Amino acid sequence: MSAFPVPVKARRSKNRIFVRAVVVLLALCVAGLLAIGWQASTKAIHPAAARHRGLDQFPALHAAQGVTIHSRTGADLAATFFAGSKRAAVILSHGYGDNQNQMLPYAEFLNRDGFSVLIYDMRNRGRSTGDAVTLGALEQTDLISAVDYITSRPEIDTNRIGALGVSLGGSATLLAAAADPRIKAVVDDSGFSDAPNVIETSFEHFIGLPAFPFAPITVQMVRLRTGIDANTIRPMDVAGRISPRPLLVIHCMEDKVVPPDNSDRNFAAAREPKQFWRVPSGGHIAAFKVARDEYERRVTRFFEDNLLSKN
Description:
alpha/beta; elongated
């Protein structure tokens, strides 16, 4: 027992100081997490602009027509239309953080085969308007609006419209095709199966922060800022609605950004007719790079079989 016991009032004062210090420390921690979450959500909905080769680097693509698509969402989408010798058209959707130039190499081989091709900047990308990237929530409706545009062109048979998307574009294509039967043939290259899962696995790659604890905070920040609930964006839940229209799924087995089990889930949920090309090597959306000749053959044949052979 201390020879000089601390008075009760003094002990209470020390306890109050300690509690206040803990509260302040916790408040600072919460404020720090929220600040980082805000910055991360800004990166998520306004990703850095990507750079790709421009149209002048693809001399085989000629007679390009710049167009503006007025989306049902209110966004104005900057797009480019390449007329083909056939009455079939394919709409190409780029990946997260990218722009329509990412799809120029794809447009080149499809247009060479006679398909008309439409590429476009997704919302909040390139020269398109739109307040934010929404991980497919609004991008699917923007794609449906691109279908509206294609069907307005007299040289296109409205029964011969296909769509191909990579990464986020692949997921948006699945969502749009499930909702719009005018899309007659679908290629999903490395799309995610559900937004919560892909946010968890790709957060560090795209945002530059560890998934925990920042991914859940960022998701909630995105919801507050955009009204979009990422938990509801689940292409695998609607993939079955694409049938009886054909689906081709492509994924590299070494993809660490959007792991191939995303396509496993999408493919399992889809109904026949469906195909899955599992590319043994390559990272995210690398199939076109590591197996270009086969990619062109498979995709061209898929659209030929399912668009050109239709009566």
